[in-house]
Amino acid sequence: MPDADFSPNEKIQAFLRGPEQSMTTKGVKTFKSFQEAKNYAAKYMPKERDDCSFEMEAAEVDGDAFVTITKTRDWFLAQQTAKSTCKASERALSYEGAVW
């Protein structure tokens, strides 16, 4: 997702633009409680975006709260659909302009 924008955190933005499938906020973003991590995930998980697709889930292990961010295939599939639509339009335009 080369154009992914996550302005609240540059490291998360770099992850979204990179090849890794998932990451946690350990060492990237600190939370005082599980509830704070949960609120962060709810606030920043995308609803309708055209630059990226991912899920965020809060967790707590040994008193350390964090968020796991996992990329989804939604953005990729949307790009494939858009590409197919463009190709179909190009074919239709080529056909309409054909000289018989």
Write structural notes for this entry.
The chain has 100 residues and is of the alpha+beta class. It has a domain at 10-72. The protein is built from three helices and three strands. The chain has helices at 10-17, 34-44, 74-96; strands spanning 22-24, 54-61, 64-71. The chain has a three-stranded antiparallel beta sheet, covered by helices on one side. The chain is elongated and about 40 Å long. It starts with 9 loop residues before the first helix and ends with a helix. The model has no long low-confidence stretch (mean pLDDT 81).
Gyration radius from CA atoms, angstroms: 19 Å
What is the helix/strand order?
HEHEEH
N-to-C terminal Cα separation, in Å? 43 Å
The quaternary state of the protein chains shown equals single chain
Helix and strand composition category: alpha+beta
Largest sheet, in brief, is:
3 strands, antiparallel
What strand order characterises the main sheet? 1-3-2
Low-confidence stretches: none
Number of helices: 3
Overall geometry: elongated
* Helicity level: 40-55%
Task: Estimate the mean pLDDT confidence.
Answer: 81
SS strand fraction: 15-25%
Number of strands: 3
